[in-house]
Structure formats: structure tokens, C-alpha cells
Amino acid sequence: xxxxxxxxVVEGQTLISAVADTSVRAAAITMANxxxxxxxVVDGSxxxxxxxxxxxxxNRVVAKGLDPDKTLLSAVMTSSLQTATPxxxxxxxxxxMFEGGFRHVPVVENGxxxxxxxxxNALGLEICQFEKELKDRDHIAEIL
Length: 144
Hints:
The model has no long low-confidence stretch (mean pLDDT 88). By secondary structure, the chain is α+β, with helices and mostly antiparallel strands. Strand 2 (38-42) and strand 3 (48-53) form a beta hairpin. The chain contains 6 helices and 5 strands.
């Protein structure tokens, strides 16, 4: 299977971000419209300051009875982040997710996000390659 770097994984992604004083509802709408499970929180200069996920909506907002229109991301985001640099292999991010029990790893260069690796989309090309290898193996078995 190919050993892609995180730069290759996030290549062509549209960055989905918001500032910390965005309401939870506005962030959730952006996430839903963008079909993503997390939004990166950045400051005015584009530096990554936090991450807000669909799990945060459930556990930190809805389950706590907070008003999503009045609750700001700054109050419910994860600010102690584990990030990865774009030169790392995809396996590094997957290991981080497994060890940390989370589903998203921001890919950051010089403090600024350049993309996001998620458990849901991280294996896209690898799964395609694996399926191709299985088909090739089955085809060879038919010939023999």
C-alpha cells in the first residue's frame, strides 16, 4: 500500500475554520453544510487555537443543556490539541488517533492549519489500493 505523507492526504482540501467567538449553532451549520465532523478554530492571524467536533456538540453542549445560539466555540472547543506536520506519514496520524481516542488530526505548518486528517477519510486511497490488490490476487488465482 502507498505510504502517503499528510501533505498528500490533505492536498486539495478546503479548510473549514471559524474564530473562537463563533456560536456553536453557526459552527454546526458550517460543519453540516461542508459535510465534515470537525471545524478548526483559528485566531485573526490564522493560527490554530482549537478544534470543535460533532462529539463536542453532543457531549459539551447538548448533554450539558447549553444554548447553541449563545454558547461560543471558545467555551466548548478543545484547545489542547495534538497536531501533525505535513511531512509525517499517514500512519503517524492514524497512530495518534488510535492512541489518543480521537478522530481528527489537524495538519499544521508554521502554526497554521493546512488540512485535517480524519479517521473517516484517511484511508480512502489505501482502501482502493487494497481492493485492487485483492482483485489482482483473485484474478491470478483464477488463472492458476
